[in-house]
Amino acid sequence: MIFYFSGTGNSLHAAKVLAEKTDDRLISIAKAIDEEMFEFELEKNEGIGFVFPVYAWAPPEIVLNFISRLSFMGEISYAYVIVNCGGNEGRTTSILKKALEKKGITLNASYTLKMPSNYIIGYDVESDEEQTQKLRAADQQLTEIGEQIIRREKGVYHTIPGSMPGVKSKLAGTMFNKFARDTGKFYTNDNCNQCGLCVKICPVHTISLDQKPVWGKDCTMCLACINRCPKKAIQYGKNTQKRGRYIHPDLK
Ligand SMILES: Cc1cc2nc3c(=O)[nH]c(=O)nc-3n(C[C@H](O)[C@H](O)[C@H](O)COP(=O)(O)O)c2cc1C
Ligand code: SF4
Ligand code: SF4
Predict the structure, then answer these.
(1) Nearest atom (ligand 3) to Cα of 220
(2) 2-176, superfamily in CATH?
(3) Which of 87, 113, 125, 204 is paired with 134 by a 20 to 30 Å CA distance?
């Protein structure tokens, strides 16, 4: 059973590839929360996996909140995590491991999976060449990860913590969740044709259409709305007008 959360399709792609390789079930965390599904029945020898993007060197709060409510019927034979990020994960695996331990679940394997960055409110997108190279390397890594999962390899921690991981995860992760998830800086320009896609894809249903999109307060900062708007109509503060947009090729 693979639980995934994804804003711009990278984690969705990784989860789909692994589900196909391991012949596993895919569960969208956002959909499960909508449907208030927090209890899952496991088949004999079934493992569990979590695939999600890193936000400020930590797991998205929505993922941690979901895990805090999660319960299983049946024995968990194996647990792994794919920490998806643009560069490095800090101590994301450790944070997730602790969250799972609180539920009595032992993490057996963890992998940092580098994919193109979607953090366009901080930096511009990578070049096409760099994106292609990262996507190709990620697919190769997913093949190896899939084989290790099938073999139920335990004690595997192929993580990329980066420099000063403890400081980054503790300081930046906490500051991000307290101060950076501000929807006040989202706005649309005249390109918006009111297609409603942003409303439909927001995982926390915070966007509504009142002639133009209007943002509520709740936001995970997945950046699906700004990256996926087909008209490039959504902006955040002053810098995103000139920047590119990123979505995984599967979503194009
Ligand atoms: C709010 C936010 C914060 C991010 N922080 C990090 C980070 O700390 N380290 C990193 O390497 N990538 C970071 N990223 C990049 C994403 O983790 C990365 O692009 C990921 O592949 C996106 O996955 P998705 O397409 O499934 O949403 C951040 C992205 C967002 C939107
Ligand atoms: S996705 Fe873009 S064009 Fe469509 S309603 Fe939202 S802002 Fe407007
Ligand atoms: S408002 Fe945009 S960035 Fe925030 S959760 Fe919804 S889609 Fe993601």
Answers:
(1) 5
(2) Flavodoxin domain (3.40.50.360)
(3) 204
Q: What are 182-218's pLDDT values in tens digits?
A: 999 999 999 999 999 999 999 999 999 999 999 999 9
CA distance 5 to 10: 10
The class that CATH gives domain 183-251 is alpha beta
Q: In this predicted structure, what is the pLDDT of residue 178?
A: 82
Whose C-alpha lies nearest to ligand 3, atom 1? 219
Q: 113 alpha carbon to ligand 2 midpoint, in Å?
A: 30
Name residue 32's amino acid: A
Tally of CB atoms within 10 A around 232: 16
Q: Is the CB of 7 under 6 A from ligand 1?
A: yes
Task: Please count the other Cβ atoms lying within 10 Å of the Cβ belonging to residue 105.
Answer: 16
Domain boundaries, the chain: 2-176, 183-251
8 A C-beta contact, residue 156 and residue 108: yes
Task: Kindly report whether the global pTM for this prediction surpasses the value 0.70.
Answer: yes
Compute the Cα dihedral for 24, 249, 96, 30 and give only its sign.
negative
* Mean pLDDT score across all residues of the chain: 96
**Residue 14: how many CB atoms within 10 A of its CB?**
28
Q: Distance, CA 236 to ligand 2 centroid (Å)?
A: 14
124-154 as b/e, with b when 16 or more CB fall inside 10 Å? Answer: ebbeeeebeebbeebeebbeebbeebeeeee
- State which ligand 3 atom lies nearest to the alpha carbon of 201: 7
